[in-house]
Amino acid sequence: xxxxxxxxxxxxxxxxxxxxxxxxxxxxxxxxxxxxxxxxxxxxxxxxxxxxxxxxxxxxxxxxxxxxxxxxxxxxxxxxxxxxxxxxxxxxxxxxxxxxxxxxxxxxxxxxxxxxxxxxxxxxxxxxxxxxxxxxxxxxxxxxxxxxxxxxxxxxxxxxxxxxxxxxxxxxxxxxxxxxxxxxxxxxxxxxxxxxxxxxxxxxxxxxxxxxxxxxxxxxxxxxxxxxxxxxxxxxxxxxxxxxxxxxxxxxxxxxxxxxxxxxxxxxxxxxxxxxxxxxxxxxxxxxxxxx
Length: 292
What we know:
This protein is mainly alpha-helical. It has one domain (7-285): Farnesyl Diphosphate Synthase (Orthogonal Bundle), CATH 1.10.600. The chain has helices spanning 7-12, 16-34, 40-69, 87-109, 111-135, 139-147, 149-159, 164-187, 189-195, 200-203, 206-218, 220-229, 235-254, 261-285. The model has no long low-confidence stretch (mean pLDDT 94).
């Protein structure tokens, strides 16, 4: 039944929790590149442009998924699923956000960041949402390309080039995402099955999913070593990131011996969220060149 929309509903379409994590990542990318020599106006434009392009992609995801959202408890109350917002209005909203975000990235930041924004939107909306999410267990892994773009945009806003730092930031977010999302998917596996999403735990089972999470988590450890080795962050970052990664890796390994999948997956999901937050905060604070 159609209901009246509110301002909160329009914000919800943009998936603010996803935006928050990626905004921190974009900020961290810029800080890593700038080494505390910050052009605050450029940083602000980069963050605004990145946020708007991400928000646009999330709105388009909602527009495309509204029927399937009705089949899941986690998503059945979303604004489009309940028709509090009409699809045509949401589509116009998403397009407006995307155009505004890309205009900012292209003209207020640089051309490279504009193209990176477009690539991220294309992968998330077309490759992930419209295609792989409905057809393949590879949706999570390949869709992670789009989620790894925000810190690269932040980094390239300062450098205007893709170098080792940009690639390492991309690797960090790309490797982090599968285990993070599969932890959620394991807890909601029957909902995803009922909705018709061919996710890895739905198609291959929870045991296989737990095993496939392991290499993604442990490959983060050499990524941290390289970020330190190339001089992008300092020894405090190295120690904290390796300890946090080892703790998350240990818990992920224990998944194969765990009977209570729901409790394990919930804890693993919390590990993933806190890991990313801790890593980026310490990366920012321990970037060489700090004035204190």
